[in-house]
Structures are given as structure tokens and as C-alpha cells.
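Report of the visiting student (M.T.), summer placement. My assignment was to run the structure pipeline on a short list of targets and document each run. The first record concerns 5-formyltetrahydrofolate cyclo-ligase.
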Amino acid sequence: MPHNDPADGPGKRLLRRDLLAARNRMTPDDVRESADALARRALGLPEVAGAHAVAAYVSVGAEPGTLALVDALRARGVRVLLPALLPDNDLDWGEYTGEGSLARVRHGGRMELFEPAGERLGPEAVTRADVVLLPGVAVDGRGLRLGRGGGSYDRVLARLEAAGARPALLVLLYDGEVVEHVPAEPHDRPVDAVVTPSGVRRFR
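After the run finished, the C-alpha cells were exported:
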């Protein structure tokens, strides 16, 4: 995701840089083992176990892995929605029907993303999800999430609030990314829980 959100202050940028550097030191085996553990933890959550529709995303690089989780959800008959980045950094959504339904997309000079290749369902589709998985770099003890800096998921959260939708908001992170304090902006909204390879922490 791009790093150009005007609300993205220097404190957030410094913390993000340090945490992303730590991710980049991880081996492919570390990432794979963590992804399997994250899937097991997330699938054990009551809100995930009872979900009919989950808005997720496909991790890239050393991000905490999500593909094992989305495949397991789909195998359970859960409808999985994946985002597609729009030119204004908002998100459209499409349905995940297996790895063959993903397309590699490069937006300008940014990182390559995996997006749904099929029909677009519109930005409002996320409001029908029972659970929304949010990408992030850190979360603090208040449940405030540090994102990648593009502001796309701030729009998603604002859209959910405007629609009166109350899905469970979960962020998937590595153990060292649950930090003491994330610099906050007035528009920042807390998540309900963080899932790490070693456990789950709830905030509300």
C-alpha cells in the first residue's frame, strides 16, 4: 500500500520503518510457520468460527501470512472477500474462489499485490462481512493499529461506521509487533483483537 496518507506523522513513520525492517530479516520458513500458527489461532476464534462472510487480504512478502487462513475459511464454506486497490487508494472487493481466482497487480511503482480476478462487488461489499481482517504493522494496548500508511483501511473503517455495520475487526501480526504505544490520530479506530502466532489479545 502507498505511504502517502497526510495523517501519517513522523512518529508513525519511524515505528513502521523499524518494524518493517525486522520483518525483512525473517526467513521464508519463519513466515510460513507463522502463517500456519496464525491460521490455527484465527480459526479458533468464535467470531471467525461463526462467520458467513469474511473480508480478508492476501499477504505479500514478509507480511504475516494469510493464504492458509483464507483457504481454510473457503474450505469451511465461508464467503471470503478480497480487496482490489482503486486509483484513489479506496478498496473495491471481489470473491476469493481459490488461488486461481487471484491476479498479480502492480499499482505504479508500488509493491505487487494479489487481487481478486473476477467480478467487482463495489466498495460497500465490505459492510456485509461478519469479520474484517485488517493488515497492519503494529497494535498497542488500546487496540490502535499502525497500518502501512496508505489510508485505504481508514476508509474501510469509516465506511463500516457510516453503514452501522459492526463486524469483528481483527489484525494479524507477529508477536513482537504488539507494542506499548502507537501514535494516534483522531480518526483512528481500535480493533477488537490481535492474533499473533502465540495467542490472541482482545481489546473490547
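The two ends are 27 Å apart (CA to CA). The longest helix spans residues 28-43. I thank the supervising group for their guidance throughout the placement.
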